[in-house]
Amino acid sequence: MNGITRELIYSPGTQASPLLAALLADPLCNLHERDGNLLQKGEIGLFQSVIMDFFQEYGREFPWRSTTDPYQVLLSELMLQQTQTERVLPKYTEFIERWPDFTAMDAAPFSEILALWKGLGYNRRALALKKIARQAVVSYSGSLPQDLSLLLKLPMVGPATAAAIRAFSWNLPSLYLETNIRRVLIYFFFDAAESINDRELYLLLKELLPPEDPKSWYYALMDYGVFLKKMIKNPNRRSAHYTRQPGFENSNRQIRGQILTVFTESGKATRKDLYRYLSFSEERVDACLNSLMDEGFIAAADAAAAESEPVYMLKEIQ
DNA sequence: ATCCCGGTGA
DNA sequence: TCACCGGGAT
């Protein structure tokens, strides 16, 4: 309860807003029918109690929540970027069983990593995982640095992932703002406001962070945010940063995915092979293959004879 | 067909 | 600030 006792919550001198009073009585109260009540200044301790009470009763359990191993935390956070927990769950388990630490991941063939990654999407994360494993082994004794600025130097590790690694590996008090937490903050503290900037949310997040156990606090906030999402239309649409993706069908993302599938299944291929397998124009296939080469997914296989057509394959990362 | 989910590079 | 990256669920 973060030092907040029942007595304090219900003491006569404590004025709870109507929303908070309802939540204190029943954390699952009919939230989507509330009418514009915001949490008030001075209710932070009470808000923390509501969230932590909810967590004790309804908190979710995940394999990545029962470990403090930086490797397992990093793996889960990379997978959870833009990817829901249900889809991550089986993949995470497979990865941990097959490559249980940075050393194993460092030694793994990239083609196998990418093949197992299939289904999660955003394959650049698999590339980043491989590169981070190398750095962990070479520079960090098979672990990760605790320092925020060092974490931010790792590929595909931005503010959210770095904060998550610090909180979930070492329970260090970072500011962790991701989509479920953003939803909770917007819902409780910004009511009908539109175009809410993350800068404001970070300031609020800092005020709300309990002095102890940020790890449980962030688990609790996320779980409450997931609950909220089931109850109401997504408040994150009022975030200044909310965007929709264009459709997947007939997108470059689809072409890239199909190209990588050809390589994980066939090993090697020429451009003509790709034209045959994929039902997209040669120009689009060429452009996607080129960008995949630029990003380090694919390389030419050996030095082909000058007159023969180049053969491509997945690049081995080291 | 629409929704959802962080980081990068320009 | 903006476009881009991958799918699965519904």
Notes on the structure:
- This protein is an all-alpha fold and 318 residues long.
- The chain is 55% helix and 3% strand.
- Strands 1-3-2 form a three-stranded antiparallel β-sheet.
- α4 runs antiparallel to α10.
- The chain binds a DNA duplex (10 and 10 nucleotides) through residues 80-84, 86-87, 118-125, 128, 155-161, 178-179, 229, 234, 236, 243-249, 251-254, 256-257.
Largest sheet: 3 strands, antiparallel
Strand fraction = under 5%
Backbone shape: elongated
CATH class of the largest domain: Mainly Alpha
What keywords describe this structure?
318 residues; mainly alpha; Endonuclease Iii, domain 2; Endonuclease III, domain 1; Arc Repressor Mutant, subunit A; 3-stranded antiparallel beta sheet; 16 helices; disordered N terminus; DNA-binding
Secondary-structure blueprint:
Blueprint: H1 6-10, H2 18-25, H3 44-58, H4 70-80, H5 85-98, H6 102-107, H7 110-117, H8 124-139, H9 148-151, H10 159-170, H11 179-189, H12 198-208, H13 214-231, H14 252-266, E1 268-269, H15 271-277, H16 282-294, E2 298-300, E3 312-314
Antiparallel strand pairs: 1-3, 2-3
The protein binds a DNA duplex (10 and 10 nucleotides) through helix 8, helix 10 and helix 14.
Describe what is shown at a glance.
By secondary structure, the chain is mainly α. It is built from 16 helices and three strands. It has a three-stranded antiparallel sheet with strand order 1-3-2.
